Each structure stands twice: as structure tokens, then as C-alpha cells.
Give the backbone structure.
Amino acid sequence: MSIISTDMVALDVDAGGDKESVIRLLAGRLAEAGRATDREGLIAAAMAREGQSATGLPGGIAIPHCRSPHVDEATIGFARLSPAVDFGAPDGPADLAFLIAAPESGGAEHMQLLSSLARALVRKEFVASLRNASSADEVVDLVEGVVNPAPTAAPAAAPAPAPAPVEEKRQRTLVAITACPTGIAHTYMAADSLSAAATEAGVTLHVETQGSSGSTPLSPETIASADAVIFATDVGVKDKGRFAGKPVVASGVKRAINEPAKMISEALSAAANPNAARVEAGAAESASSSSSGGVGWGTRTRQILLTGVSYMIPFVAAGGLLIALGFLFAGYDIANTPEGQTDNLGKIIATTNSLTNLPPGGFVQYLGAVLFTLGGLAFFFLVPALAGYISFAIADRPGIAPGFTAGYVAVTVGGGFIGGIVAGLIAGFAALWISRIPVPRWARGLMPVVIIPLGATLIVGLLMFFLLGRPLAAVTSGLTNWLGGLSGTSVIVLGIILGLMMCFDLGGPVNKAAYAFATAGLNVADPSSLRIMAAVMAAGMVPPLAMALASTLRPKLFTEPERENGRAAWLLGASFISEGAIPFAAADPLRVIPSMMLGGAATGALIMAFDVTLKAPHGGIFVFFAIGHLVWFIVALAVGTAVGAVAVVAAKQFFAERTPAEPSTALANA
């Protein structure tokens, strides 16, 4: 089946004043041509992709694109717009728009067709031909000519070139990696833009496109002979350690499309500069690495901290749920420490009893004690894992050992969660600094396994014990005492703040910060920490439940894919999976997100007002046995869900939809 046909081409049309109108026009053409089974579903997928980053390109071109379950064959729709429409390109609106629709599980064949079109769009003569086309047939021929080019006869073998004179200067060689989040268009456009600029500069460039259509990895010989490497990526570079020691220039993928000649020049300058930044030995993807898309230190710091939190959460979830199961089987008394003992009752039973020597409560009590102890051991790694993976995000694998050690030191000196963050940052930057110290060739193999871990551990350990431990412990103790002393209006305000944070970006940095704050301080002996945990989990359940309720009560306000997501969101919300509301927020952030935040704030306030507690950090309504004042928990959750649902229904019914100029970047990080 052809990738494009005349009924999917619109010439010199007024599609409306914004990019959603253009996408609606092209999605309608694809649906009418039988290439999309659900027009609204395709529109939602394309707009969700727009929410990640602008698809406008220099030169008056826009390439909105997406994967969708409503598309079975790779398909392209085209519109020549009059007037032009802004798609976020730096040089103004676009008069040429392609809607590229790929199947959800699009294979290499589909992706290769789409990448061929993307590559053609960097050629000025191809773009000029599209602008000058007089008919839809001509446009179809132009597009088919680049995605399905006719085979050409093999050229006659040329005579072998004469050997170059010995004194001839070796041609400079560069290698590059390009990769964008979806791997459909920008990956290949960046590759071709860089290749064209390299040819013009007289430089040999080898590009590895890490996109959806696949590519052949650069050979070790090619990498070894390169003078420098370019990383034009919005995602991590796969197997980045191959380029260890090479001078590197890094940016986001769109810069390679907009400024390819400048990046080639920067790479050549880096190759001639002995002090240029280089790919670290043993490098892999990390938040502070050169593949981070050329972002500033504010964004890098957020990425570093989120890496630590993301790796920490599995320890929290597994450990917390095991602790909750321990309470279910053995009761809450197993958390108490008997007089004259140093360990809690659960640990004493788990370590002194056995299947042949059961405690007075029998097998059920023994099982509960074992589960409680196992959960406590997993939960213990919360701060070390946080610090270890913060350090990993900065210095990669050599930072893991000093980071974990630093986290344990933070626990030992009483620094807690805050101490873990500080210790992880110090360990990571110490490891990164040591890794950049020039050493003889014979010592390079010892750097990542001995020298860096040893030096970084020594630095962070001495700093924590000599200087930072007691101040951090005082801060943690003061914060704990302050939270424990909150009452009345103050505790309700805290619940509102936590509720707003949990519903703002649905798994993004703000949501994770609130969740990490609650889980890091969770202590079954501290009622204030249990109230905070209850507020965080209940508020986090509101967004998917509110969207499920709204799409059930007023289905005509939602698209068919959203109604399907709404049916699934009941279970996701009940399980405390806030991400279940992302499809709704991505398609309509300005009306959905504030509505969810309103519901979350109501739930957080009520949880605090009703003095609800929670001893488990995850599980939603399924850990009901760990919830204190369960009835009030359900009431608070129901009120927040209703408030959020009513708010979003009202917003959709009474306020016209507007496509934001810069959709929420938080949703792109979720």
C-alpha cells in the first residue's frame, strides 16, 4: 500500500490558526482515506507528541508525528497551508505540514519509509518542489520518489585512485550519534543535516542513527579513527562507553538540524583542543553526561536528583508493602521494642524462631515477623540507594560504591533523607573529579574499580564525619520535630500543599519530590509521618479516579481513546498509579491539570483534618489494613475524586480549549 495518496494531500488550504487545527485537518484526511480507524484517537496521539517538544523546523516546515494503535500502515498526510501556522520553529510559522502516522508497533520497514521522508526535508530542492507543486499528484510523486526511490543501475567501476602522496594531510574524521524521543523524524533529519554540513566543510562524518528504523552501529575501527564525536540526542546514548576518551560536542537533536555547520566546527575545534571535554571512560547514560541534550545546570540537577529517586522507589515500594503484610499477619505490636532489647519484636521473632520452633502466635505470627523484617531490610536501603544513584547519575558506575557508602554514612550520623541527597551529590562530584585526573596509561584500568571508588569514598566519608554530619542531623531532627508539632490549620495547609504537588505532573519531578518526602520520613512510631504518607497516597489516587469518573458521567466531552483510558483508570487510581491520568493531561493540560490539582488539594486537606494515617508507602486501597481511620480515608478520597471530576467537566463544557504555546514539560518527564 502506498504511503501517501492524492486524497491525503491538501494544497493551499486555510486549516485554521493553530497547529491542532492543522492536525485535525490531516487526521481527517487519513481517516477518510481508510488509513486511520479513529480520527480523534490519532489527533490525541499527535497532540500528545506535540506536548513533548515542538515539531516545527526552520524553513517553514512542520512534521507533527506519532505512533498510534489506530494506524495499521505507515501513512503520511500533507498540507500546503495558506496562511502559515506556528508549530514552534525558531524562524516563524510553517506553510508545509506533514502528518506522519506510524503503527503502535511499527516495524523497521515502516520506520525506514518515514525516516526517508524526514531526510528529504533537509534538502532545499525537495522543499522547493513541494512549494511549487501544481497538483496533489505531483506531491504524491515527489514523496513516493524519496520514500520508494526507483532502483538505479550500478555505476561502472571506477579505476583505483592513485595512492596519496605521503606528505598529504589526513582528512579529518568525525563520528556522530543522533537520537530523538520517538525516533521517527528528528533523528534522521539531524543525521542528514550534519552529513551535509560535514561534506561542505570537507570532513568525513560517520553517523549512527539510534532511531526506530534501526541502524548499523559504528565499527570500533571507525570510532578509533575519529578525531571527535558529536552527540545530538534528546535521550541517552546507547553504549556510550565505546567513545571513551574522544573529544565530544553534545546538544539536543534539534540543534543539529538548525546549526549543523556550527556543530561540525565545534567538533573540529574540540579535536584540536587537548583540554576539550571528553567522553568518560566506562560511560553510560547519566543525567550529567554530555548526552543530556545541552541543557543547563538547573535541568541537570533535577535529572540527577530524579535518577536517585527513581532508583530508590522500588526499595520503598517493595519494603513498605512487605512491612504492611507483616502487620496484617502479625499485628502492629511487632514494630515495638521489648524492654531491655535493642531490636523490635518482629526482628527478634524472625531471627530466633524457625519453622520447627514457632513463637507463641504460631506460624501466622512467625510469617508476619519474617515479612516485617524482610520489608525493614529492604526499606533500610532507601537512603543508601538514593545517595548511590544520585552519585551514579553524576559519575556513572564508578560513583555507585562511594554513593551507597555515603548514604549509609548519612543514616549513621542521623542525616536522614536530606543527608542522603547531600552525601550523594558530594560522592558523585568527587568521583567525577577524580576520573578527570590525568594518569599514566598503566593506571587507567585501575581508575574505575579502585582509584575512583577509594578516593571518592574517602572524600565524602571524611566530609560527612568531620564537617557535615551533625549539622545535617540537626536539620533532619528539627524538621521532624516541626512536622510532629503541626496541628490545626497548619497541618491542613500541609495536606493541601502535598495534594497539589502529587497532582501537578503525575509522576514527574514535583510528584516524585512529594512522594520521596513522605516515604523517607515514614516511621510507624511517628504519627505525623503516617499522616503525611496518607495524604500523599490519597491525593495521588485522585487524578486517575477523577478522570475515570468524569469520562463515565459525561462521555461526550471525551474522545473514544480517553473513554477507554477512563475505564482502565478506575483500577490504576485504586492502585495508587497517578500516571493513569497522563493521557488526559497530555491531550488537554490547561483544563485537566488544574482540575486534578483542585481535587488533590481537597483530599490532602481532609486526610489531615480527619487525622488519617497510613503505615504502607504504596498499594492504594488494597493496603486498607494499614490505614488508620479507613472510613475517613475513603470519604476524603471520594470527595477529592468528585471535586476533580466536576472541575474537569465544568472546564471542558464552559471553557473553550486552547492549545498552549509551550505544553507542560512536566508531563514529558513523567
In short: Residues 447-485 form the longest helix (39 residues).
